[in-house]
Amino acid sequence: MSAIRIRDVAAMRRDVLRRRGADAFTPALLATARRTIAEVRRRGDAAVLASVRRFDHRGATRDDLWADRTALRRAGRTCAPELRAALDEAYDAILSFHRAQRPKPIAHRRGPFHEALVPQALGRVGGCVPRGTVGYPSTALMIGVPAQVAGVDELVLVSPMPKGGALDPALAYAATKVGARGLYRAGGAAAVAALAYGTRLLPAVDKIVGPGNAYTTAAKWLVSADVGIDALQGPSELVVVASRDADPASVILDLEAQAEHGGRPYAALVSDDEGILAVVAAVVNRVGSRQGTIALYRAASLEEALAAATFAAPEHVHLAGARAARLVARTRNAGAVFVGTRTAVAFGDYVAGSNHCLPTGGSARWSSPLRVDDFVRWTTRVQATGNVRAAARAGAAVARYEGMEFHAASMELRG
C-alpha cells in the first residue's frame, strides 16, 4: 500500500464528492434489497430465517428469532459486572441529556382562534442495532433512551444473530435497560422489511430508526413510503480541523479510532500547520494499519480548513487545539462537533450523553442527530372561541378565488 500523501483542500473536495457518488445505492444493491423485502412480505418469518441462516447463524431456528423480555433479562444477568456498571453510567449520561430535549406543547391565540401544536409519542418503534464481531449495546442505549424519554408505547430492537446463536449479554442488558419489548434477531434488509410490514413474531412498527449496513440503509429508503424512518446512515466519517497547538498523539488516536469502523469509514485531518500534518503522516505511514481510510490535507489557513469541513458536511467534526476550538460558533454542517483537544470523539460514542446516531454522506447539511423529537409526532389543534365573521369573510374570498365553493360556504355558515 502506498504511503499517505499530504494534499490540498481541492483534493479533499474531490475525495468527498467521489465518496458521495460511491455511497449512492447501486442498481444491484437496490434490486437485492427489493427482492428481500418482497420475500419477507410474502413469507414473513420464514424468509427472515432463511436470510439469518445464510448470513449469520446456519443452525438458527424460528424460535431463535425472537428474544422476549424474560430472555433478555436472563441473558443480561450474565453480563460482566464491570461492563454493566459502564453501561449504567452511559445510560445515565444519555438520559440526562435527552431529558432536556423533551418537547413541550406550543399554544397560541389570535383573534377568535386558539391553536396548539401538541407532541404525542409514537406507538411502536423499531430500532436497528448493527453488529460487528460483537453486539453494540451502546447503539441500543442511543436508540432506547430517547424513545423512553418521548414515552413511546413499545420499542423493539433488531440486530443480527451471532454465528453461534447465543444472546449477547451486553446487548441484552442494554435492551432491558431501555425497556425494549424484545429483540428480533436478524439484520439487513430482512429485518427492516419485518419491522415495516410485520410478521407473525413481529408486528409492524410506526417508525424505524438506527444505523446498519448498506442493505439496511437501502431497505429503509425503500420502505419509507409505508413507515417512518429517521435518516439514511452510511459509512462513518470524521474531519479533524487542527491548529498548530493541537496534540498530534490525540489527533492520531482519533483518526485511527474512526478508521476502525467497518464499511469504508472516512477519517480526515485538515490543518494549516505543516508540522502537525508531517507528524501524523509519519506515524500513520509507519504503523500502516489503516492507510486506506485516513486522509491528510493542507489548508492555507484555519478558515480554509473549516470551510473544507463545512463542504464535507461529515458525521463528526473535531476542532483540535485551542485556536481551532475558537471556531466552534462558525462550524456548520456537522452531525456532532467535538471542541478542544481533551474532547475525544469517542466520548460521544459512549458516555458524553450526546447521541451517536448521526447524519452521514453530506446529509448533515439538512439532517440532525437522533433525538427525542424523532420519537414524537405533532398534532395541530384549532378551536374557534369567538366571533368568526371577519375570518369567514376573508377565508371565503380566498376559497372562491381558488374555485372552492363549498370551502367558502362552510366558513360563511359559521360567520
Task: Please summarize what this structure is.
Helix content is 44%, strand content 18%.
Please provide a written account of the structure.
The protein is α/β, with parallel strands linked by helices and 415 residues long. The protein folds into three domains: 6-23 and 235-365, Nitrogenase molybdenum iron protein domain (Rossmann fold, 3-Layer(aba) Sandwich), CATH 3.40.50; 44-229, 3-Layer(aba) Sandwich (Rossmann fold), CATH 3.40.50; 385-414, no CATH class. The chain has 16 helices and 15 strands. It has helices at 9-23, 27-43, 45-55, 69-76, 81-99, 137-150, 169-177, 188-197, 214-223, 248-259, 274-287, 302-312, 322-325, 345-350, 389-401, 405-414, and strands spanning 6-8, 66-68, 106-110, 113-121, 124-128, 154-158, 182-184, 207-209, 228-229, 237-242, 266-271, 294-298, 316-320, 336-339, 376-384. The chain has a six-stranded parallel β-sheet with strand order 1-12-11-10-13-14, sandwiched between helices. Strand 8, helix 9 (214-223) and strand 9 form a beta-alpha-beta unit. Helix 2 (27-43) crosses helix 9. The longest helix has 19 residues, at 81-99. The protein is globular, with a radius of gyration of 25 Å. The model has no long low-confidence stretch (mean pLDDT 95).
